[in-house]
Amino acid sequence: MSKIRIKNFGPIKEGFLDNDGFMEIKKVTMFIGNQGSGKSTVAKLFSTLAWIEKALTRGDRDSKYFETYNRFRNQYLTYHRIENYFSPFVGTQLTNNYATEIEYEGDSCDFKFYNGAFHVQKKNKNSNYDLPQIMYVPAERNFIGSFREGRETNIVLNSLREFITDYSLALEAMDGLVRLPINNVDVEYSKSTKTVYIRKEGGFQITLPEASSGFQSLVPMYITSSYMANSVKPDNENAKKMTSEQSERFRIEMQSINETPGLTEEQKRIARSEIGKKFNKTAFINIVEEPEQNLYPLSQNEMLNSLLEFNNILPSNKLIMTTHSPYLINDITLCVEAYNLLEKIKKAHKEAELDAKVAEIVPLKSVINPEDLAIYELDEKDGNIKLLGNYKGLPSDENILNFELGRTNEKFSDLLKIEDLCL
To answer: What predicted TM-score, i.e. pTM, was given to this entire model?
Structure first.
């Protein structure tokens, strides 16, 4: 399990106050809080560090490359435009004496940024490391519908440009109609005209740019998440291909095994397996900003269930979300309760009669083991982070999003009290 500690970086000050400051990134991890509280900051940092861990494990670069002075800030954090989040500032110039502290503990590598320097510690054993396909789904995805084919190279935002590339691969891999999780609507892609169509059976047919903002946000996220989740499944024909550089390194390493004298066939088999692990992706890390974007509450529920289903395809997959939606927290609670209930049903040996009843409420492929869930609440006022409490694994109602839902009721009650004074 990966862990990350952040202090004095952007809006985050003391950071997480428990567990020596380390936040565990579990199979399903959510970050909630006001705008400007640092939700996306954490997600972007994790995305960057997880990618560096993958690159080191696969052998794309060595430790010294990443430890080169200021490369971490000037080359890798610029990808997400967070290179200027270091503290403290002196006027408009960054000092070299950063107060920023960042630590990452992964399955294969540990990283530490302290006093302006980035340090790499590779672990001796990485047999538990699953090489991931990492995808960052930016909030700006709803602009995709307005782009003309081939114009994505002009996009300044790196994460959006790369996401469009992945989205294009997903579209090319489509075969016929794909049913969306909302509104009983299908998506179809014309490879000849490079056009995405939204279709409703017996009803309308429109292009994606003509569709509502909810569809423009959902379609790229859903289609690409489905493609990526299935691409890491064993023996999948649509697996995302290696780059030419990676293919050449793979060929050279395999050839060296065959040409090494004295190795038994068993030793060669083990060596080939280890090299395969370095290049074959066996996990999907899906990092999604505001998955609820422009969606009706019921659609948010159906969208979330689909992302959780993709996440549950492999035990090594991870789903990381930033959100402002109280509905997603409530829907996550349903998925946890459904898991707990299925466990009780299993112990009672009543699966045949009760599993179907649970499925009418929560899709069985979308349930969540409470031990696999972490929800972190970020406070923009003091820059602290806390882990949302739970009761028997169920997320606590005592969270900032639920408080905001209750705020309107409290104000309405106050208005009624003033009205009583008129009598």
So the answer is: 0.86
